[in-house]
Write a structure and sequence with these properties.
By secondary structure, this protein is α+β, with helices and mostly antiparallel strands. It is built from two helices and four strands. A hairpin with a 5-residue loop joins strand 3 and strand 4.
């Protein structure tokens, strides 16, 4: 009996990951300026990693390995140790195009909103960084 020896198809995936910036120690008092934020805030980075894999599960595994390799630490301007750590693999998206070129969509998601939500409500909730600095967020 002849076996099907067709190789699995390799696809591109965009995998969204989340890093957290963890600060250790107190800032040097003479270095604190208007750019210093207090320790009551946390800083996260959302990143989209491009991965080639045969399955979404493999893409998630590869993205996690790559993201962990991106973890790093350094001393900031205020002489605090800053560690960037992977905290979550958020989502994977299989790209429809096998060839990357200008205009290739590398990530997409659907956002479910209430019927009464305006576009500004959605932007405020999901993309507050896109608001004009003069605009106040909608609560």
């Amino acid at each position: 009996m002849e076996q099907n020896s067709q190789e699995p198809q390799i696809n591109w995936y965009a995998v969204k990951v989340l890093f957290e910036s963890i600060h250790f120690g107190n800032p040097l008092p003479d270095k604190v300026d208007e750019h210093y934020y207090d320790n009551n805030e946390k800083l996260f980075e959302e990143s989209v990693i491009l991965v080639k894999a045969t399955t979404i599960e493999q893409a998630l595994k590869i993205a996690e390995e790559q993201a962990k390799q991106s973890e790093h630490e350094y001393l900031n301007t205020y002489n605090q140790l800053v560690k960037w750590q992977l905290v979550s693999i958020l989502h994977a998206f299989e790209l429809n195009d096998h060839e990357l070129k200008n205009g290739t969509e590398i990530y997409s998601r659907f956002i479910h909103a209430r019927k009464e939500d305006s576009v500004k409500d959605v932007i405020t909730r999901y993309y507050p960084e896109a608001l004009d600095k003069k605009e106040e967020p909608v609560n």
